[in-house]
Amino acid sequence: MKTISIGIHNPCVPCSCACKYCLLQSCKEAEGIDYYRGKKLAERFIVWAKNKNITPLPFYCISYCAEYPQLSDNISFNKENGFLGANFLQCNGLKIRTLSETDQFIKNIKSAGIENIDTTFFGNPKYHDSFAAREGDYDFMLLLAKRAAALDLNCSPTVIVSRESLSMLDELFDTLESIPGIGRIYSFLPDYRGRGYLMEKARITVQDYEKLSDKIKKTFNISRYKTQKDWLSSGVLPEYTQRALTVTLRKDNIDQFENMSCDEIIAYVEKLDDDYYKAIPSINELAEIYGNKENEQLYRLRDLFWMWQKRYIHENHISIYDITDERYCNTIRS
């Protein structure tokens, strides 16, 4: 199993939302460490990677949102090292601002080098606010998208599609598309990670997708989604050969990591990953056990693998570190 990327993740900023499907399972609380303490470890990893000719360089990312005083420092750090965060900012979960405060925020991040932002929408205002667990979130996300476009900052909204929101989508898209200068809209289905399992009953079927209007369909990368029937009928499913590894910095592990070498930290997380996947069958074996050829819901293959893994671990009472939980050190295999 080849490790193809390394991230240093510091969940040191509480999110103002607690979205129903949140990958990081936000509870509006921070669980990380001091920003600069985490940056120091990230800098050590970058020097280590350069000395070993490892590419891409390990990145330093902050969660749960971009509401922290060191944001401009992190953007500069990303710029110095050629990371995506040099010009892109995910804007979900920010504190709600007035129009003038929103304009100032946009001007500040533009001057720091941000060229693209993302805001996420779940449905109509009432449903959206319930989904995000914050009153007024829809209106603020819409304000942010409008003011970004007006101030020449590209905003490409993303839309989460589920059976719960199908009847709301056309009106939502009309609203977003009416914004002068709005960027391209992207739609996707909830991942199974984090709290994504809560959306399982609302996952759309292929028939639901076919009924969507053309303007919504064109925002999907539908080629990545198939029904269980189609995945299972495609022959032997591809086994994973590589992993993206993330070292998550928390109050309960930072002292340990600061006293370890970079090689030791990577070996530690790789062993957690190896032990997890040794405890469960392969994807093809899980497909034999749990695959449902009658199921018409749409999945990415990795979502099926995560779903089958969780079911196997639960049914067999396996106690093991969950390497897929992004609140902690984690990996994503591909």
What does this entry show, briefly?
This protein has 334 residues and is α/β, with parallel strands linked by helices. It is built from 13 helices and twelve strands. α3 packs across α5 and α12 packs across α13.
Poorly predicted runs are none
Determine the CATH topology.
TIM Barrel
Distance between the termini: 10 Å
Domains (count): 1
Which oligomeric state applies?
single chain
The CATH C-level class name: Alpha Beta
User: Which word captures the global form?
Assistant: globular
**What are the secondary-structure elements, in order, as H or E?**
EHEHEHEEHHEEHEHHEHEHHHEHE
User: Which structural class matches the secondary elements?
Assistant: alpha/beta
User: What's the story with the biggest beta sheet?
Assistant: 4 strands, mixed
Helix content: 25-40%
CATH architecture: Alpha-Beta Barrel
> Taking Cα atoms only, what radius of gyration do you get, to the nearest Å?
21 Å
Count all strands and give the number: 12
Mean pLDDT score, rounded?
A: 97
> Widest sheet: strand order?
2-1-10-12
List keywords for this structure.
single chain, 334 residues, alpha/beta, TIM Barrel, four-stranded mixed sheet, three-stranded parallel sheet, 13 helices, 12 strands, globular, Radical SAM protein, rSAM_sf
